[in-house]
Design goal:
Blueprint: H1 9-25, E1 30-35, H2 41-49, E2 53-59, H3 64-71, E3 83-84, E4 96-102, H4 110-123, E5 124-134, H5 145-157, H6 166-175, E6 178-186, E7 190-197
Parallel strand pairs: 1-2, 1-4, 2-3, 4-5
Antiparallel strand pairs: 5-7, 6-7
Length: about 200
């Protein structure tokens, strides 16, 4: 670990299990847009181990300096330069096989999460997938006491933050034509949720 780079212990812990999931749900060759790339540890780890993934790391404007510092000097043909992405603003005109976002749904406001879904739907190819990682509630209940304490700390920091419920996540996804096709248990009481295009035939 380079002591001069920004470092997230959580990203360090979850990068291996998250990579295993991504390998299972994404093709070996793919254009992947990462929303909320943080310190860039995921972008570095995933692009190094999956050369067929063309990885596009982005951060919100206020966090962009952290991402740039985290990826400074790391050069790979499949790792794109860090870019700014405000979920409420303009999304890339490119199309992607996947949009990946880790530990963002509980930081963004409700409107921000809805904007994330809408933006992802706008840039995904017809067979593309959205992958969300983090803690979630189920039917209004936390899945672990540690998540309940974490949720309290988030809401104390800022009223708009908080762990989202799977029911509302599914509704926001459906509103933009996405459906959850997988829910995978992860370490530390987190989940990985996978969404793809909703098939109109499923509603008949």
């Amino acid at each position: 670990m380079d002591p001069n780079r920004p470092h997230s212990p959580a990203a360090e812990r979850n990068r291996a299990p998250l990579l295993a999931v991504l390998r299972a749900v994404l093709p070996e060759s793919a254009d992947v847009l990462e929303v909320g790339a943080g310190t860039g540890q995921h972008a570095d780890h995933f692009s190094e181990r999956m050369p067929g993934w063309r990885w596009w790391p982005t951060n919100a404007p206020a966090e962009q300096a952290t991402l740039e510092a985290g990826l400074a000097g790391i050069e790979r043909p499949n790792l794109r330069a860090p870019a700014v992405l405000d979920v409420f603003g303009r999304w890339p005109e490119l199309r992607f096989d996947a949009v990946v976002s880790a530990n963002t749904a509980h930081i963004l406001s409700e409107a921000g999460v809805r904007a994330l879904f809408g933006g992802a739907a706008s840039v995904l190819r017809a067979d593309g997938r959205l992958v969300l990682y983090g803690p979630f509630r189920r039917a209004g209940r936390h899945t672990a006491e540690s998540n309940a304490r974490f949720d309290e700390s988030l809401r104390a920091r800022a009223p708009h933050m908080g762990i989202r419920d799977l029911g509302e996540i599914d509704r926001w996804a459906a509103a933009v034509g996405l459906q959850r096709i997988a829910e995978l248990a992860m370490p530390a009481n987190n989940l990985t949720l996978v969404f793809d295009r909703r098939n109109p035939a499923d509603e008949s």
